[in-house]
């Protein structure tokens, strides 16, 4: 926690002001602030926003910084899962090293909060989690990392994975994950009952990958909604992707979105290029809290992506046919403050009393800042400068 005075910034694209951070929190915003014994930065008139938030990624999967991976395959979801599980060890994919690379790039690009799923399966047991827990510890104070214990290869179809998830949560994973309770686990009742049982036992929230399309996905989502209500877990349940809410059937999707909003279920979307995704504008209009995420970056699944939430926001914006400035402002909010809100963490924005986390962005307006491909001039976490002009400024930490 640090003190910092940043001169000449435009909070949320408004009038130029100075911003003072004391003990890691915003203490004052105003004209010509003075403070003694405080580090000073010149914002040079740049727009300031709350730090960016990657609310759905997989820090344990990236090959970033390694040699080019030539073994990517097409095929079904199951083919991609199997290819990755079999490739990890021959590839030498060291999770601590790779998650450091991935997270440090996110920090350099202005991200202050990350929710990362970690694979828990028979082959790797809890070793991937251990690597990521080390990364979370190494980067404490520079970025906050929530870890989701994620049964990537299935839960009910792989006896023993339930106990591994149980152990992962006891070891420090923050969130209970899940994967396609109907199409992957072939038993939505047993799968969801297990997930909610773990959440209740450990007092932790839930985030379920739901790729299931159409009516099957809608059925599974209804089961998630029913359990959220029955367990009184409003605000504690998230669904990632939720492609079924992207179905071109407003008579089915509209009421489902209303129920999702009523039970305060959070949706995490990545603008997936090869699927019908739920409309960000429609979800926000329905009152749903939505987070955006980069998902997998240059991993065994696919070659695409950058560890940069503005890069991802542009993909989500294109996918959602966004053109107007108000839509781009909504997009930027979902990639920053809104994502934090969806993850269940403080999301007050740039106001006195809020956490001293902010990112300066290039551009004349908030809308311009989304589309402008330029390094972030300054990234501040808890009043400490962690990156400058796209490069890390973390003493003692170098890119592995
Ligand atoms: Zn994912």
From TrEMBL:
SUPFAM superfamilies: Composite domain of metallo-dependent hydrolases (SSF51338), Metallo-dependent hydrolases (SSF51556). NCBIfam families: PRK05985.1. Coiled coil: none annotated. One of its GO terms (molecular function) is hydrolase activity, acting on carbon-nitrogen (but not peptide) bonds, in cyclic amidines. This is Cytosine deaminase. It holds the Pfam family Amidohydro_3. Residues 40-387 form the Amidohydrolase domain. Transmembrane segments: none annotated.
